[in-house]
Amino acid sequence: MKRATLISMGFMAALSSAAIAATPVQNNNITESEVEAAQKAWGAALIQISKDYAANGHESASALANQVLDQAYGYSHGPVLFKPTLASGEKTFRVTQEGALSYFVGGNDYYGDGGFALKPWETYDFENAAVYINGDLALTMGHVILTDSAGDTTTVDKTWAFKKDEQGTLRIVLHHSSLPYSE
Amino acid sequence: MKRATLISMGFMAALSSAAIAATPVQNNNITESEVEAAQKAWGAALIQISKDYAANGHESASALANQVLDQAYGYSHGPVLFKPTLASGEKTFRVTQEGALSYFVGGNDYYGDGGFALKPWETYDFENAAVYINGDLALTMGHVILTDSAGDTTTVDKTWAFKKDEQGTLRIVLHHSSLPYSE
Amino acid sequence: MKRATLISMGFMAALSSAAIAATPVQNNNITESEVEAAQKAWGAALIQISKDYAANGHESASALANQVLDQAYGYSHGPVLFKPTLASGEKTFRVTQEGALSYFVGGNDYYGDGGFALKPWETYDFENAAVYINGDLALTMGHVILTDSAGDTTTVDKTWAFKKDEQGTLRIVLHHSSLPYSE
Amino acid sequence: MKRATLISMGFMAALSSAAIAATPVQNNNITESEVEAAQKAWGAALIQISKDYAANGHESASALANQVLDQAYGYSHGPVLFKPTLASGEKTFRVTQEGALSYFVGGNDYYGDGGFALKPWETYDFENAAVYINGDLALTMGHVILTDSAGDTTTVDKTWAFKKDEQGTLRIVLHHSSLPYSE
Questions:
Q1: Span C123-142, mean pLDDT?
Q2: Along chain A (183 residues), what's the average pLDDT of each consecutive run of 10 residues?
């Protein structure tokens, strides 16, 4: 193994200077703080659509909602497993962006939604019951609490799956929302 | 590069015989058929617990339910994100096995559940709206349809996340079940 | 639970027709056959660069090599862990595309490579010793056998890691190649 | 949506107290610091085997090496993609634990290895050229520098893939080691 032992001082010096420079690290995983940020962003976007509707009308709010879906959901990558709170029957699941857009801002004859994001939402909060992180995918489950302009509070049971894409953006690939069970 | 070019015929022969033997492949991923099998197994287990309760009483059914939770859920690995259909209030989320067991067979003073698996379930079916597979984790969303001994049908909106463990067993790490929305 | 049991026949019919349409499935995992195809493509690209050099000269071969690196390696996503067969000293690791390009076609004063892909390669084969698949990442290890126009054979010990990107393309994110050990 | 808005103050209080307790988080991902610790542990184990051999003989060192393989490699989970530094020909790849054990401590007629870990190793260091983290799998590439009791230094080009198992232990599932190329 003579070759290997004949390492010149120059080579060792090169190693040392290389050690000073930071080692490049590519990490594709989701972190807890990224999950929390994405959860906060979801609520902020909902309220923003609501306020945009009040200020600028349906067309503006609808364009904004579509932009939010483009950026925060995974529809451009494939189907999204989305069960909105108030959807039912054969329109329960919104695996396409068209179905999701209808749920948030209505205006779609087939789905017949009223537009959940058009309600006068004021504040948003969430309480995670548990979080599960597996590579570039994170699962959350907990309560989401929305308050409207009249001070009425709506709490829903909410499950999300976030996928971190190649640009580092977390995208919702699963969203199951339901009203609390009452006997 | 003389070393490399001096490959003896014996070595090439060894390569050829190695090629005849199958290359060892370790594949940690979930397949669609594994997901379907796990979904079928969930319903079969529910009905088995129900029938065991009718035939052998609560103690037997409770032991069976605990065994099902041991084998089909991920509680031994960490928290499970479980929102059962009929759970609500501060008892909505059952991140521990104790909470899940109570939901299925009752008998727990704190949770006060009636025992969902003790109802006289006869048949089970599911309809996936979409499936999302990411490594050793698979997400499903769709309807689950249960029929009881009186012929009454219960349909729920159901989301599952299955994690394939090191033994190749799919374990439920997320389970969100809710009644269909009705105005 | 009266709501849930009052499912109209129309709804069940909708479920049935939905079942006829294929369930959308998003599967981000790598398959064995995708790995084999990527391994074959690597060799085909190497030979193509070699033949392009012979036919059209260095500029053409260099452009082609750059295109291959763009498409088959992960440099556009981050650092690639690349240890080429004949690289050594402080130039052993080529974590940037510039370093990789130099290795394949030379023409870079800093690296001083002769250009591995410019040799007159004729045929390519590989023998996997084992394959390891973990989500969207696959690892392979085995022999790669190259034959040149003089009929001389070069065998190297080769390790690859392939990452499946969002477009479904397998990209090399790790490549360790070494000459067989000889005493 | 009257149900949802009729949330009692008691329920909100329950949410608040739940928020005080830490949310359970299951995170299956590898961290950079875990990777570094595993890389350090590999060298420490090599030196420990070497010193055990000097102090207690071959049987003791062999038992220790087997224990290290049990704990730090993934052989109990499936094949390991292992190309040791000094292995060649049809014995290049050691996908079974038997082949790996032979490489480190010899004593195996088929493989005929001298026993790499039996050399009088004194110190160990590593320099990562780059690290790639993807879920529960991490890839490293760089130099490993070993010094023996005579002060001679051996540098090798080293690639590892570590898989985090269900107990949180990082296991080597790929290990490609080669002597630096010299013309």
A1: 98
A2: 34 43 93 98 98 98 98 97 97 98 98 97 98 98 98 98 97 98 88
A104 backbone dihedrals φ, ψ, rounded to 5°: -80, -35
Chains that touch C (3 or more CB pairs under 8 A): A, B, D
Report CA-CA distances (Å) from B105 to B38, B102, B132, C88, C163.
21, 5, 31, 66, 45
Cβ atoms of residues D171 and D157 within 8 Å: no
The whole-number pLDDT of residue D19 equals: 46
The tens digit of pLDDT for each residue in D101-133 reads 999 999 999 999 999 999 999 999 999 999 999
Q: Which chain C residues have a beta carbon less than 8 Å from that of B86?
A: 1
User: What is the distance between the alpha carbons of residues D32 and B33, in angstroms, rounded to a whole number?
Assistant: 35
Residues of C with CB under 8 A from a CB of D: 78-83, 85-89, 92-93, 95, 129-130, 132, 134-137, 139-143, 157, 159, 161, 163, 173-174, 176, 178-182
Q: Report the candidate in D152, D104, D151, D155 with the shortest Cα–Cα distance to residue D125.
A: D155
Nearest CA in chain D to B95: D24
Burial of D13: CB neighbours in 10 Å, binned 0-12, 13-18, 19+: exposed
What pairing do the DSSP bridges indicate for beta strands C170-178 and B25-27? unpaired
- DSSP codes, chain A: -HHHH---HHHHHHHHHHHHSPPPEEE----HHHHHHHHHHHHHHHHHHHHHHHHH-HHHHHHHHHHHHHHHB-TTTS--EEE-TT--GGGS---SHHHHHHHHH---TTT----GGGS-EEEEEEEEEEEEEETTEEEEEEEEEEEETTS-EEEEEEEEEEEE-TTS-EEEEEEEEEPPP--
Please state the pTM of the whole predicted model: 0.90
Q: So what's the pLDDT on residue C21?
A: 64
CA angle C30, C32, C36 (to 5 degrees): 110
Q: What is the mean pLDDT of chain D?
A: 91
Vertex D173: Cα angle to D169 and D177 (nearest 5): 120
Cα diameter, chain B: 82
Average pLDDT, chain C: 91
With H, G, I as helix, E, B as strand and everything else as coil, classify residue B30: coil
Integer Cα distance of B130 and D29 in angstroms? 26
pLDDT in tens, C3-58: 333 333 333 334 444 444 689 999 999 999 999 999 999 999 999 999 999 999 99
- The Cα A168–Cα D149 span in angstroms is 48
Sign of CA pseudo-dihedral D34, D40, D41, D43:
positive
Which residues of chain D have a pLDDT value below 50?
1-20
CB atoms under 10 Å from CB of B16, counted, come to 10
- C167 Cβ neighbours under 8 A, 6+ residues apart: none
C-alpha triplet C170, C173, C177: angle, nearest 5°: 110
φ and ψ at residue B59, rounded to 5 degrees: -60, -45
- What is the assigned CATH class of domain B32-178? alpha beta
Complex-level ipTM: 0.89
- Helix (H, G, I), strand (E, B), or coil: what is residue B131? strand
- Binary contact (C26, A77; C-beta < 8 A): yes
Q: Is C30 helix (H, G, I), strand (E, B) or coil?
A: coil
Residue among C11, C26, C77 minimizing CB distance to A90:
C11
User: Whole-angstrom Cα distance, residue D2 to residue A182?
Assistant: 11
Q: Percentage of chain B surpassing pLDDT 70? A: 89
| Rg of chain B over all Cα atoms, to the nearest angstrom | 23
Determine the Cα–Cα distance for residues C93 and B182; give it in Å rounded to an integer: 62
Q: How many CB atoms lie within 10 A of CB B4?
A: 16
Residue B183: per-residue pLDDT: 76
